[in-house]
Design goal:
The complex is a heterodimer. Chain A contains 8 helices and 8 strands. Chain A is α+β, with helices and mostly antiparallel strands. Chain A is 38% helix and 23% strand. Chain A folds into 2 domains: 117 residues, no CATH class; 100 residues, Alpha-Beta Plaits, CATH 3.30.70. In chain A, strand 2 and strand 3 form a beta hairpin. At the A-B interface, helix 2, helix 3, strand 4, helix 4 and helix 5 of A face helix 1, helix 2 and helix 3 of B. Chain A: Keywords: Gas vesicle.
Amino acid sequence: MSSSDTGTVTYLFALCASRPPREALSAVPGHPGGGPLRTLEAGEVVLVVQDVPAGDFQEQALTERLDRSEELERCALAHHRGVAAAASHGPVVPLPLATVYLSDDNAVAAVTAREETVLAALKRLAGRTEWAVKVHASVREAPAPPSPPPPSPAPSSSGSAEQPATAGAGGGRSYLSRASARRRVLRDRQERARALALTVDRALRAYAVDAASHRPQSEQLTGVKAPQLLNAAYLVDDARRAEFVGALEQLRADERLRAVEISWSGPWVPYSFARPEQPAATAGAGAGAP
Amino acid sequence: MTEVTDWVDPTATTVHVPGPNNSTLADLLERILDKGVVIAGDIKVDLLDIELLTIRLRLFIASVDTAKRAGIDWWETDPAMSSRAARDALAEENETLRERLAALERRLDGEGGHDTGTPTRSDTGTPAHTQTQTQTQTNPYTESPTR
C-alpha cells in the first residue's frame, strides 16, 4: 500500500483488461528501489503498478534524474519492461513515463473516473500491435552531385589581367547558375524521395487499422547520413501481421523505390495509439499532428 | 496472443536497444515521453491533483532538454512547441527590420538635406542599432524554447 507515510508513491505502468499472470510481473524488476510489480482494480480495468520511493519521484528529483541521459535511459527501460510485462497476456493501454500517484486510492479513483474511455481504448487495441517504419533517402543514391561543368576558360591571352572586373562577374554568374542547378537537382531528388516515402506510407496504411507519424529523427540521432523522410507507426491486426511484414519486404525489394531505404521494428506495445480521443493522425512527411 | 513474448527481450538487460529488434532508445523515448494531452494527464486534471500535474510539466521540460542533447529535435518542427520561439523570432526580425528601415530613412534624409549635416552616417552607431545587430545573431533554438 502506497502512502506518503511509508515514503512511497504509486507508479503506473499500464492499464489492462484482465489481470496479467503473476510470473509475468514478478519477472521484471521495475524501477530501482521499488517494490514488486502488482495490480490494482478500478472497475473492470486492471492497473499494473509499483511502489516506488517517493524521494526519487518528487518533482525536483525527477527533473534532476531525467535530465541525465543515462538515468533517463534506465528509467525509460524500466518503464518499458513494466509495460511489456503487463502486455504479456492481453491488450494494454500503456501510460507515459513517470505516471505517478500519491496513493493507490488516487490512482484507482483516477482510472475509475475514466473507465469507459480506458475500456474503449483497450477494446480498440486488443489483438493489435504497433509497427514502426522509417524511410530514409537512400545513401547509395544520395551523393553524386552533378559534376560541375568545366570552368569557363579563362581568357588565355596575355592581357587577361586587363579586365578583372568583367571576368569576375562572368565567373560569379556561372558559379551562381551552377549552384542553383545543383540546388535544383538536390531539391528534385528530395521531392522524389519524399513522394516515394508517401507511396510507402499509403501502401502500408492499406494493411493497418490506424497510422500515426512521429517527428522525423535527425541525422545525428539516426547515424544515417541521409534525411529521414518518414517516421511512422502503424497499428496492425495480429491477423494481418504476416501480410503487413510481407508488404514491407515487397516494398523494400521494389526497384521503383530504390531511391529510399525502408527499415522497421516491431511488434511494439501500441504506445502511439493509446491516447483516447485522438484525432485521425496523419502519417506522412511534414503533416504533423496538431 | 502468442507473439507477445516478443515484448520482453531477454537480452534487453545488456543491449542498448530497448524495444524490438532494430529500434533505438530514441524510438522508445518518442513513444513514452509526455508530449501533450495524454490519458494520465487528463486523469490528473480530473483529480485536480495539481502537485502531480506540476511534476509532469517539469518532467516534460526536463525530457526536452535531455532529448535535445541526445539529438531528438521534434519540438523544433512541432508547431505547438515552437510557436512561441517562432513568434519571438518573428517579432525580433520585425524589430530589426524596423530599425534598419529607420536608419535608412535617416540616412536618406541626411543625404537629401545636406544643410542639416547631422551625423546620421556615423559608423559608431546608436546603442539601439548595436543592440539589434546582436539580437539578430541569437539563434532562438539555442535557448530553450520551452521556458
